[in-house]
Write a structure and sequence with these properties.
The structure holds five protein chains of five kinds.
Chain A: H1 3-19, H2 26-53, E1 61-68, E2 71-77, H3 81-104, H4 111-130, H5 134-152, H6 159-190, E3 211-212, E4 215-216, H7 217-233, H8 241-244, H9 250-259, H10 261-271, H11 273-279, H12 282-301, H13 306-357, H14 375-389, H15 395-410, H16 412-436, H17 452-479, H18 489-510, H19 525-528, H20 533-589, H21 591-606, H22 613-634
Chain D: H1 2-23, H2 27-47, H3 51-75, H4 92-113, H5 123-129, H6 132-140, H7 144-166
Helix pairs in contact in D: 1-2, 2-3
Chain E: H1 3-38, E1 49-51, E2 56-58, H2 64-75, H3 86-105, H4 119-124, H5 129-150, H6 154-185, H7 190-196, H8 207-223, H9 235-238, H10 249-273, H11 288-310, H12 316-347, H13 353-378
Antiparallel strand pairs in E: 1-2
The chains are: A mainly alpha, B alpha+beta, C mainly alpha, D mainly alpha, E mainly alpha.
Chain lengths: 635, 253, 105, 178, 391
């Protein structure tokens, strides 16, 4: 596995992104994109095989990109179990989603552009995964951000989509600001930005010591990096952009807002786990994750848009991953991340085919009775739901169980919050299923099953969603770093109870109801209004912003005043000097005067050079004479 | 093959052949060496040159019949002064551009065979040194009295009156003219003969015309007499027209 | 009194100065050219004089050197005249004073 | 005795020739007096027993250069110089002053410096040595390089002269500076 | 005054002044007679002594003609055009005569009454005689120019220019062909050249010598404006070129100068190529040398007159291209051939006759082929005349 083959993984989609705009037909573009991603997927799986099965440890490959003042900034790739797992997952899920979106976007005129952005996103994501230096990580992080913005506001003729894109971009930028400051701090303290170097003086190998702003430096760094993760993964304060991001086409949501991009934040924390550990920030991570999970779960209950419900479930699941990493280390977090990627992608694609089937209808109140017309989609959707709800022995169950076990071992309150969140997850998922599948179709035109190209990836994903957990569990827990706790009986019972209880509760509430017209019992006001977070921000940030504008205008006025004052003062002094000193002293007396004198002197000199040839000859002869005289008289 | 410079050698050979040839066969030398004549042996006056007609000083190169030199007067057969053609009308004297002819008319007329008596030139001088042999006098002479002679040996030591040819020197007979310029002489005689014939014919015609007119006049007189007698009997309205027509008719007759 | 080296040297310098006078004061370019010729010949005279009165004439330095100067002078005159003709074609005059386009404005 | 008179005659011829050459108003007269000057110089060379140089002087200068200058005069204007045109250039007075000063300041003192040499090696010996064959040998043996360079110089100069005099492409329209 | 010197000088120069002018007079007569004969006419025979008593005339076969011309020239009115440079108008004919005369006295005539040790003769045995010849003939061009310029009329100036151009361009082949002889003899002295050709081994009997002689002869024709090259003084061209304005005695001087130049050049040709003064009886009776020398000169003059009778005049451009593009390259080639031939001959005497034959054939062949080649090149762009209006 040399550096160049590794580099191919992110490069292939990038090349595809570069070539696709030249293509005219969407179909061709799709083919190229899919081909490129399949290529990198092959390499990724081969790398996965080498690192996981053959357990070869690869040294970090790093290439010097830039040297500024002695310090080398170099790009590099790291191939260890964590990255190979993530790369394999991203490429595999990505390919399936690409194939799915080839069918989904077939009718759209700007399909080529869509696939160009998708390949760009894929290359960015793979860059993030493989990056060995923080700078490359950050750059790919930004590429992913841009791609998500482009994809969200893909249907830019819809104003909300454009607004959603902007919102997503700005909110993630706020997170990235923290991340950037974190990077600078790391660079200042450790002097290098590489995670691992052969001389193992990488930033993760030699942890910086000392304090900054009163806290431990690693704490500060990890906090700042965590802020970046919150922004990107949509944790509590900065989660508002994720639900609105549903404006983009469904495969986008599936790829970006389920499987990969949001996972980037979690991956960042996983990658820089030693710093978090050293800085003692893990409990904070856990708490933020738990609260986000709970709140998101409650909001999801109040939502009527199919994709919004899934969005909020993603937010809560990410919270759980953060809890996983916070309490039980990288392995547990990554386990849940991997499994979540599969079943959440499945759910989103399923939602996509449902919407496609109901002729672009997204409101669950207008759906219903889809089981019969769309059997395949329904089956896949149900598998996804089971996995999400952590029905026993599905992959979701294993990963969530690990988290709960870890939480139980280290942090009791977080355990209970997480359990409650899981319960809520089960409830809103069953609510959603009850709305969509049983009963009579409330929409105005007959739903129809999507064609093969969309349903096949669904089936593949559903297989993984169910089986992956058991398959991968123990090998993953050993290879990845982390401290998974033992499973007490109480943890197992609680998790099973939570899962089944939630389903039962949901079925109970929504069973016989005439869904659609009456108000939803659980859709309480605050849930539906998403705890008024947007309004809150609107109120605070917006007003703050205007306050800031007013303040800056005042400041500007003041500065202008000061500038005019100084200008006036200096001009007056200047003229004083100009008239007095310059004109009198210099012009007439010293400089110009001198120039005039020189000029008239030179004019008399030019008279010699007046093109009068005989004159020249005479001067030469005269010179000779003088020289002769001089020589004779002196000798 | 064309050897370089072969042209020059061929040329040189030709000139060499000429050079040597000229010494051996005399006909090559086409320029006769002109006999040198001592001044004293030259005749004093141009006219003194032998008068026998046609006899040159020396059989010089044949004189072609187109050579012209100075004019001469012609006279028909018989005694020169009686049959001289020139009637001293002095047209040639007037026309001569260099004015080299001087004529004095005789005061009495001389009988001319077959013609009425005419004047004759008492003196007829041509100054040969002035004459430029332009032949204008020959063209203007109505009586073919003066033609061009081809004798050129007229050099005399005396430039002034030596070169003045008098009437006696100029007068030559028609046979001599025929000898030196046969074609031209023949043309000229034929033309004279034709003119004479034409004149007689005209004279005859004139007489015939006169008799015819006399006869016509008599016939007319008779017819008018009868006509007058008829007119008294007819109306007098149209007398003027008939008279004008009558005149016209008469003229055209 | 026999003719000594000094006679020739003085004669040569007189001729040289006549040539210089011509070059300096004449207006016509061609006259300047052949006054330069006069100067060159004066120099040649010097060479031969030194060779004749010098102490080892068998080296023949004098005549050799004059040969070379004569050749160079001939070449120089040819070129000088060619240039004068070229100048004349352009300026329509060989009068040195009219050729003053080099003048500093 | 006759050698001294010869020297004075020839010197007089040379000086008068040179003076007329630069003084004459009519250029052609000037050139002919220049030729007289060259002939005078050739005579002086003969006096100095440089026989071959005298002949070459006549051949090159009196023959070729004279004709060359005449041709040049023919090709340019103002030959007779009869018109009331000033012969000398402005400030020619300074010219004479400088020429005279060059003579007095530069040349006379240097001549004074040179020792008076009056017993030249006898003429027979020189005549025997300075035969044309000897000159030829010298030219070939020690000075062959200078000879070659001289040949090169002459060809280059003459080719240059031809191109300069020929002037540009005849088809080009001549621009004349008014 | 040391009379000895004066006597020697007179002895050396006066014969020249006697012999050559008389030869000049005779040549004019011979020329007119010969030309006449060539053109199938007799030639001047009218001038004679009038014998009044016999009534005839002593015709003297036209021998009186030159005398008559001379007298005529003397009494002709001596016209000088207005505005002409009177001084140079007079000087030109004299200047054209002087170089011709000067060249004569340096010819190796070895008069019987002059013994070598007389210092006047020694003076004439100039070391660089050949170079001296060419220097002096160079002056001739000057005289032509002076004549052309001094007579203040455009035609004579143009004629003068043409003559100069012709003389200058033919000087080069002249000198180069002379170089060949100087090269083999090894000295420029005319006497030595003459001595080296004694005993019938004249240079003309060697291949390169023959070629050089032909080139020299043609060039000498051009130098003296004779026969095919007499463009400058051709009446039909520019009215007798540079001596249009000359009449009377000055014209006679030009005429004399031209003929003396002819003698001088042919004398030079004889010394260089035809073994000056060397003839059958030369060794036995040295005084015969002069006779042979003059005889050979007369032969050359004869040939010149003969040429004058046959060849038409050359146009200016043909004349120039003939010199520059034909004669000069040939003469340069000839110098190379001489070098090779001379070395080939000297290095292997033992082969004797065969080497001579080989040299002869080889050099002549090369010369002839190059001549043909040059001719073809020069003739390359001469296309048959196209008539604009004719048929």
């Amino acid at each position: 596995m040399s550096f160049s083959t590794l580099a191919l993984i992110p490069l292939l989609p990038l090349l595809a992104a570069a070539v696709i705009p030249l293509m005219k037909s969407g179909k061709q573009a799709a083919g190229v994109a899919i081909g490129a991603l399949l290529g990198s997927c092959g390499i990724a799986i081969w790398a996965f095989y080498k690192t996981w099965i053959l357990k070869i440890v690869f040294p970090p490959f790093s290439q010097n990109w830039l040297t500024i003042g002695g310090t080398e900034i170099n790009f590099g790739f790291i191939l260890d179990p964590l990255t190979s797992a993530m790369a394999a997952m991203v490429t595999f899920v990505g390919s399936l989603i690409f194939i799915y979106s080839a069918g989904y976007m077939a009718k759209d005129k700007r399909m080529a552009r869509f696939f160009c952005y998708l390949s760009l996103f894929a290359s960015g994501m793979l860059g993030v995964v493989l990056a060995n230096s923080l700078i490359l990580f950050f750059m790919c992080w930004e590429i992913v951000g841009v791609a998500s913005y482009l994809l969200i506001s893909f249907w830019n003729h819809k104003p909300q989509a454009a607004a959603a894109g902007k919102k997503a971009f700005i909110v993630t930028r706020i997170g990235d600001m923290g991340f950037l400051i974190g990077i600078l701090l790391v660079f200042k303290s450790t002097g290098t930005l590489d995670f691992y170097t052969t001389e193992n003086n990488g930033m993760l190998q030699i942890l910086p010591i000392g304090t900054a702003f009163g806290f431990k430096i690693t704490a500060v760094i990890s906090f700042l990096l965590f802020v970046g993760a919150i922004g990107k993964s949509g944790q509590l304060p900065l989660h508002v952009w994720l639900p609105d991001a549903m404006e983009g086409p469904t495969p986008v949501s599936a790829l970006i807002h389920a499987a990969t991009m949001v996972a980037a934040g979690v991956f960042l924390v996983a990658r820089t786990h030693p710093i978090f550990q050293d800085g003692g920030m893990l409990p904070l991570v856990a708490w933020v994750g738990a609260i986000t999970a709970l709140v998101a779960a409650f909001i999801a209950l109040g939502q009527y848009d199919l994709k919004r419900i899934l969005a909020y479930s993603t937010v809560s699941q990410l919270g759980l991953m953060m809890v996983g990493i916070g309490v039980a280390g990288v392995s547990v977090g990554m386990f849940h991340l991997l499994t979540h990627a599969f079943f959440k992608a499945l759910l989103f694609l399923g939602a996509g085919s449902i919407i496609h089937g109901c002729h672009e209808e997204q409101d669950i109140r207008k759906m219903g009775g889809l089981a019969k017309p769309m059997p395949l989609t329904t089956i896949a959707y149900l598998c996804g739901t089971l996995a999400l709800v952590a029905f026993p022995f599905t992959s979701g169950f294993f990963s969530k169980d690990e988290i709960l076990a870890g939480a139980w071992a280290n942090n009791q309150p977080v355990f209970w919050i997480a359990a409650l969140a899981s319960l809520m997850t089960a409830v809103y998922m069953t609510r959603q299923c009850m709305y969509v599948f049983p009963g009579v179709h409330r929409g105005n035109n007959e739903p129809h099953e999507s064609q093969g190209i969309m349903t096949i990836p669904l089936l593949i994903l559903s297989i993984f969603a169910l089986g992956l957990g058991a398959l991968v569990r123990n090998s993953l827990l050993e290879t990845l770093p982390g401290f998974p706790a033992k499973h007490e009986t109480i943890v197992i019972t609680v998790s099973i109870a939570v899962a089944l209880g939630g389903i039962a509760l949901g079925v109970l509430i929504y069973r016989g109801r005439a869904l659609g017209q009456a108000i939803d019992p659980l859709a309480l006001k605050p849930f539906e209004q998403k705890f008024w977070f947007d309004e809150l921000y609107e109120a605070t940030v917006g007003r703050l912003w205007t306050l800031f504008i007013i303040f800056s205008e005042q400041l500007n006025a003041l500065l202008v005043f000061i500038r005019d004052l100084t200008v006036e003062l200096t001009s007056r002094i200047g003229t004083g000097f100009a008239i007095g000193g310059d004109r009198k002293l210099i012009d007439s007396l010293a400089f110009d005067g001198l120039c005039n004198r020189i000029r008239c002197a030179s004019r008399s000199a030019t008279r010699v050079q007046n093109g009068f040839l005989p004159g020249y000859l005479r001067l030469i002869a005269l010179g000779a004479v003088l020289l002769g005289a001089l020589v004779l008289w002196t000798s | 093959m064309n050897l370089l410079g072969a042209g020059i050698l061929k040329g040189m050979a030709v000139t060499l052949k000429n050079f040597i040839g000229s010494y051996f066969d005399k006909e090559r030398l086409n320029t006769l060496e002109y006999m040198w004549q001592n001044d004293k042996s030259l005749p004093k006056r141009a006219g003194d040159y032998p008068k026998e007609e046609g006899e040159q000083l020396r059989p010089t190169t044949t004189v072609t019949n187109y050579s012209r030199n100075f004019p001469m007067l012609l006279h028909d057969d018989g005694e020169p002064m009686d049959t001289i053609r020139c009637v001293a009308c002095q047209i040639c004297e007037r026309e001569c551009p260099p004015q080299c002819i001087y004529i004095e008319k005789s005061d009495d007329k001389k009988e001319r065979p077959g013609g009425k008596p005419q004047f004759y030139p008492a003196t007829f001088d041509i100054d040969v040194s002035v004459c430029m042999s332009c032949q204008i006098c020959v063209e203007v002479c109505p009586f073919d009295a003066i033609v061009m002679n081809s004798q050129f040996e007229l050099s005399t030591p005396d430039r002034f009156n030596g070169l003045l040819l008098k009437r006696g020197d100029l007068l030559k007979s028609n046979q001599y003219y025929h000898k030196i310029h046969p074609e031209e002489a023949a043309d000229r005689d034929k033309r004279i003969a034709d003119d004479k014939a034409a004149k007689e014919a005209k004279k005859k015609a004139a007489e015939a015309a006169k008799e015819a007119k006399k006869k016509a006049a008599e016939a007319k007189a008779k017819s008018e007499a009868e006509a007058n007698s008829k007119e008294e009997s007819k109306d007098p309205s149209e007398p003027p027209q008939t008279s004008t027509e009558h005149n016209k008719e008469e003229n055209t007759e | 009194m026999t003719v000594t080296l000094h006679h020739y040297l003085i004669l040569a310098s007189v001729l040289f100065c006549i040539g210089l006078l011509g070059a300096l004061s004449r207006r016509n370019a061609i006259v300047v050219l052949f006054s330069v010729e006069i100067m060159l010949n004066a120099a040649n005279l010097n060479f031969i004089a030194f060779w004749r009165f010098g102490n080892n004439p068998e080296l023949l330095h004098g005549p050799l050197f004059t040969l070379f100067t004569i050749a160079v002078a001939a070449a120089e005159v040819a070129l000088g005249l060619a240039l004068v003709i070229a100048v004349y074609r352009h300026f329509r005059s060989v009068d040195l004073e009219s050729l003053n386009t080099l003048k500093e404005e | 005795m006759n050698e001294v008179t010869a020297f004075w005659i020839l010197a007089a011829i040379a000086v008068i020739g040179a003076l007329f050459a630069i003084r004459k108003r009519n250029l052609v007269h000037g050139v002919f007096s220049l030729l007289v000057f060259f002939a005078g110089l050739a005579g002086l060379f003969l006096l100095l027993l440089a026989e071959f140089i005298a002949v070459v002087q006549i051949l090159v200068y009196a023959g070729a250069v004279g004709i060359l200058i005449l041709f040049a005069i023919m090709l340019t204007d103002r030959v007779t110089g009869k018109d009331a045109f000033r012969v000398t250039s402005r400030g020619s007075f300074w010219g004479t002053i400088i020429a005279a000063s060059v003579f007095l300041v530069l040349l006379l003192p240097t001549i004074q410096e040179i020792p008076q040499v009056d017993n030249p090696s006898n003429s027979e010996e020189i005549v025997k040595q300075s035969t044309v064959k000897a000159l030829g040998k010298k030219l070939i043996h020690p000075y062959v390089i200078t000879l070659e360079i001289l040949a090169l110089l002459l060809t280059a100069a003459l080719i240059g002269a031809v191109t300069a005099a020929q002037g540009g492409h005849p088809a080009k329209k001549k621009i004349s500076i008014e | 005054m040391n009379w000895e010197l004066i006597k020697d000088i007179l002895l050396a120069t006066v014969p020249l002044l006697v012999i050559f002018p008389t030869m000049f007079a005779l040549t004019t007569w011979v020329e007119r007679k010969a030309l006449a004969r060539i053109q199938n006419r007799i030639g001047p025979n009218k001038v004679g002594v009038p014998m009044s008593r016999y009534g005839g005339k002593l015709s003297l076969f036209g021998l009186g003609q030159p005398a008559a011309d001379g007298i005529k020239m003397l009494f002709k009115e001596n016209i000088v055009p207005t505005g002409a440079d009177r001084l140079f108008h007079l000087l030109a004919p004299i200047l054209s005569l002087i170089p011709a005369m000067l060249v004569l006295c340096f010819l190796p005539l070895n008069f019987p009454w002059l013994t070598d040790e007389q210092n006047s003769v020694k003076a004439f045995m100039l070391d660089g005689a050949v170079i001296f010849f060419f220097a002096i003939t160079g002056l001739n061009t000057l005289a032509v120019f002076m004549a052309g310029w001094a007579s203040r009329n455009k035609y004579s100036l143009l004629g003068g220019m043409r003559a100069i151009a012709q003389m200058v361009s033919y000087e080069i082949p002249l000198v180069l062909s002379a170089v060949v002889v100087v090269m083999t003899v090894g000295s420029l002295n005319a006497g030595e050249i003459a001595k080296s050709q004694d005993g019938w081994n004249w240079f003309v009997f060697s291949p390169w010598g023959l070629a050089a002689f032909i080139i020299f002869f043609i060039a000498s024709l051009a130098e003296t404006n004779r026969s095919p090259f007499d463009l400058p003084e051709a009446e039909s061209e520019i009215i007798a070129g540079y001596f249009t304005e000359y009449s009377g005695f000055k014209f006679a001087l030009f005429f004399l100068g031209e003929y003396i130049a002819m003698f001088a050049i042919s004398g030079l040709a004889v010394t260089l190529f035809l073994g000056a003064g060397d003839g059958p009886g030369a060794e036995a009776y040295p005084s015969l040398k002069v006779i042979w020398f003059l005889a050979k000169i007369c032969v050359l003059i004869g040939i010149m007159i003969w040429l004058r009778g046959t060849l038409p005049r050359l146009r200016v451009d043909q004349l120039m291209s003939f010199a520059w593009k034909f004669l000069m390259p040939l003469s340069i080639l000839n110098i190379f051939i001489t070098g090779f031939a001379w070395h080939a001959e000297n290095n292997n005497e033992e082969y004797g006759f065969t080497i001579k034959a080989i040299i002869w054939t080889a050099s002549l062949l090369i010369l002839y082929l190059t001549a043909k080649g040059l001719d073809k090149v020069n003739r390359a762009n001469i296309k048959p005349r196209t008539y604009q209006y004719g048929e």
